[in-house]
Amino acid sequence: MPRDAASVWRSVSAGGASFAFVALLSLSGFALLLVIAGKNPWEAYVDTVVYVFGNAYGFSELLVRMTPLLFTALAVALPARIGLINVGGEGQLYMGAWLTTAGELALQDHSAFVLLPALTVLGFVGGGLWALLPAILRALRLVNETISTLLLNYIAPLIVSYFIFGPWRSPESSSYPQSPAFVEAARLPTLFHSRVHIGLIFALVCLALYSLAMSRTRFGLEMRAIGGNPAAAQRLGIPVSRYILIVMFMAGGVAGLAGMAEVAAIQGRLVSELSPGYGFIGFLVSWLAGASAGGIVAMSFLFAVLSSIGDMLQITQGLPYAVINILLAGILFIVLGRRPVASAAR
Amino acid sequence: MNTALVLGVLASAIASGTSLLYATLGEIVGERAGIVNLGLEGIMLVGAASGFAVTAMIGDPFLGVAAAALAGAAVNLVFAYLVIGRRANQLATGLTLMFFGFGLSALIGRPFVGTLIAGLPKLQFLSLGSMGNPLLAYDILVYLAVPTAILIWWLLFRTTWGLGLRAVGESPVAAVAAGLSPGRLQYQALTIAGLLGGIAGAHLSLSLTLTWEEGMTAGRGFIAIALVIFAKWNPLWAIAGALLFGAAESLQLQLQAAGADVSPFIMNMIPYLLTLLVLIVWGWSRQAAAPAALGRNFVGVE
């Protein structure tokens, strides 16, 4: 862990350089696409910059897009520190949203002072329990957590669909099933008269706690010891299995908070298409950020900008969204190929 | 359960297990060479879309299958270059390949959404004459699936090439000491894996659904990766695994067709739950035999 000023600066500048590289690469990639499509990339960029950064609304939407990625990236970074690969952010997000909705339906007569803390805890617990299953299987050395978290991603949305097509189906939603709208007291407060919600603050607090815990606490020290060499950590008397359970529960909980925020702030109800792959994008964000809290904020912001540009180009230039997916994947390929093996998701 | 239901489940288990078998065989070859490819889902999607596009445009499903296999191999070579040539992280690169395949297949399939094709012709054997349907009425890919598994088994376990490939998966350093070139063998393995993954996708769109839909593989690529563990990295065991999962999928369809009063969402969970359950049982019996160097990048010999 870097402590002295010189090594801190080295890691910051390395992070900055890789951020600049990804940013430059993606912007030139989009420009190339536009040229191929016969458009003027400069004009499109000026339009986009004016739209995204030129007014408070565009910028606030970036923060809205960035919020779930902060959570899902942290959900990957945390277990990565003890050598676990959590690819289940998507499923954990859905189960966090699911338990949040269950809580809202049960407690909706209470005031916001009861509801909001309760829903936040339920969102965390919903995602956490969903991650606890692969954690138990891993701790018992039964199933590798990579494959179990991947499979659970496909089950969670089916549970959500079952409830909104069945027991929780709102009577008003005939063609497009969804749960009844959350009561006003269960909606997360928004900031600056925009769609930016308090979930952003939660995410930043979680990241700050993560950073502090990793560098300043015994918990973080022991996590790093397990990540470095699990067998040695076990011999030193560190309860490795207990760490697997606790860390995965917290990671799933953090992803669950993303789901909580989606239903309680953005959608205002449980819907079947909650996430356009936030869990998977979070994995890539975390990987690119090298699991550092500051890196996660920077890379999430960059991904938010890129997806906004993608949306803009889709609307104004008529590029199909698939092209934007391909471009993002292409950028990641280049970054992956450029990076030496040692700095894989830590 | 009556006989008709059992026969129906069995027949559609074979049909829907075929795609899984090809995908699993491809992943086994790659993993035997020490490389985990989480991008199998993306390869299958690209195979399904390009096979469908070629069939819809030219009208020849066999050309469609060939195109799917080549497209699968082509995208897997991108993955191969990154993890072998550039020593990129296998898991992150695999997931990125899944994204890439999702986008690319959506682009390829876009003009063909809603198009219906005739698909691969069914070859009928053991006709019962006027008694009813013939016992065997499948397309050529179904008949070739088990022979392909046996061929892959023979290649891996009965040839010098296969011995070298497995050596790379167990210990690349030892393989180099024996005069082998790990990188070249891994490229060959991933080319085969891409071809088979593409065919797996093609069987979905050209035989089972006969339409193209974005993301139509619905996690089958990940189930196939789990089946590799179930099969203990052995192509012959993969046949049993693919049949079991084909049966789970078809039982669900048959029950729905029979009007069983269970939510389709609960039934759709069956294949994923079954996969997890099988992995748990396998983990319990502690018989897994993963290649020792699986997932690690070979960085050369000092």
Please tell me about this protein's structure.
The complex is a heterodimer of chains A (346) and B (302). With 346 residues, chain A is mainly α. Chain A has a single domain, classed as ABC transporter involved in vitamin B12 uptake, BtuC (Orthogonal Bundle). Chain A has helices spanning 5-36, 41-53, 56-80, 89-107, 112-139, 145-165, 199-216, 218-228, 230-235, 240-267, 278-289, 293-317, 321-338. Chain B is mostly helical and 302 residues long. Chain B has a single domain (10-121, 136-285), classed as ABC transporter involved in vitamin B12 uptake, BtuC. Chain B has twelve helices and two strands. Chain B has a two-stranded antiparallel sheet with strand order 1-2. The longest helix of chain B has 30 residues, at 3-32. In chain B, 51% of the residues are buried. Classes of the chains: A mainly alpha (346), B mainly alpha (302).
Can you give me a brief rundown of this structure?
Chain A has 346 residues and is mainly alpha-helical. Chain A contains 13 helices and no strands.
How would a textbook summarize the main sheet of chain A? none
Structural class of chain A: mainly alpha
On the 0 to 100 scale, the average pLDDT of chain A is 82
Q: Give the overall silhouette of chain B.
A: globular
Number of domains of chain B: 1
Question: What shape does the CA trace of chain A take?
Answer: globular
Largest sheet of chain B: 2 strands, antiparallel
How is the largest sheet of chain B built, in terms of strand order? 1-2
Q: Quickly name the level 1 CATH class of chain A.
A: Mainly Alpha
- Unreliably modeled segments of chain B: none
Question: What is the arithmetic mean of pLDDT of chain B?
Answer: 85
Using the 3D structure, state the CATH architecture of chain A.
Orthogonal Bundle
Total separate domains of chain A: 1
Helix content of chain B: over 70%
- Approximately how much helix is present in the residues of chain A? over 70%
Q: Return the string of H and E elements of chain B.
A: HHHHEEHHHHHHHH
Question: How many DSSP-defined strands of chain B?
Answer: 2
